[in-house]
Amino acid sequence: MSASFDVAVIGGGVNGMVAAATLAKAGKRVVVLERSDAIGGQGRIGEFAPGFRADPLGHDAGWLPPPVSRELGLSGLERVVPEVTVSVPVPDGRLALSRELSSAAAAIRRFSPKDADRWVGFCTRLAKLSGFLEALYVLPAPDIDSSSLADLLPLLGVARKLRGLGKVDMVELLRTVPMSVQELLDDWFDCDPLKAAIGASGVSNIRQGPRSGGTAFVLLHHHVGAAIGAIRGRGYWKAGPDALNRAVAAAAARFGVTVRLDAEVQHITVKDDRVTGVVLSTGEEITVATVISGADPARTLLGMVDPVWFDPEFLLAVRNIKFRGNTARVLYALDRLPDSLQGMTGVLSLAGTLDQLERSYDDAKYGRCSEFPCVELQLPSLRWEGMAPAGKHVAVAQVHSAPYRLREGAWDVARKSGLEARVTASINHAVPGFGDAVRHVEVLTPVDLEARYG
To answer: In a 3-state reduction of DSSP, which class is residue 140?
Structure first.
């Protein structure tokens, strides 16, 4: 054995680094084993063309639980929320939703006075319900199969939080969570572009359409931590797209975590029902008493551990976990920025109706890449300096519904080129001149994203 630690954390993504730093602060000897040449996991920045950089999976800053920030003493994490958080094309321009309630209502009033009048009530309700999820997320996860009083205490905490909503909002939460996002938005609004701008958040990065049950919960989930009125607007880190990764890495170093790069774990060794260590791809063995894995359940439990240590029923349940990536990314290096994109630090969502989102999902459901993919465009180079050479820009397109497995065969150069052509045409329709500004394109299918980010 070449080394000995109390805990090995597999994966240097933000979750793994938070776990490592927290355990090290508690006095444990912790090693992080990252298979790539840099930590950061899904938040890594990469250069996709000379001088052009992007973090393909970074859609917003997400939600940082306050207890995590306090426990680790994280700093340098100032958040910027764009004035216009999301916009969607309409026949005579764009419907732009401001983070300011009155400004957004005024923009909506051009299309539907009724919807404008309901805007404040909708945003207030959305904030209350997502605020309950925020409170729920910081509670210890209850063991719902346990009958002991100690294990049931977290459930009592959930009940108290639920009652704290009040009767009306408590009933609304229980009604909303299982709904489809289309049903929820149909209850509130008439304007199709408005519903599409909001509803795209309910199907982001999942293999479901807006008419699927539970997508209203996904909408709430993506608004945890957002201010009232900031639809799709949790913002971005002022210090850069990797600001959270850098802050957590600094905390881990401060508490004495050992980080090893290019260290891919091949096996987790077990003896007498106890973890004894890990074996790297180089053959090196590291002695540990505890392993925390940031890899997916199938890779961890089916690929790294001898199945003799698990019940057959448990292994079957793990094998039945479905990994169905449904989102692609298209990265654009631009020689110039079209006039209509100047100053856009929010999201441009190109789906004008929920029906378009649903049809795109229908294609993916049957293994087809949609002829009319739903695209959301962001411009990292308008948010942070250094993402592109001077005068140039980076655009990142998130593409809904590009299935992991295509019915006609594997993703190859021709099929990736076809996806890129459709995405560029979609953007060009809403942003005239966009295609003429493109210098270089990189397409990342769900298969590519899995290979790069796990």
So the answer is: coil
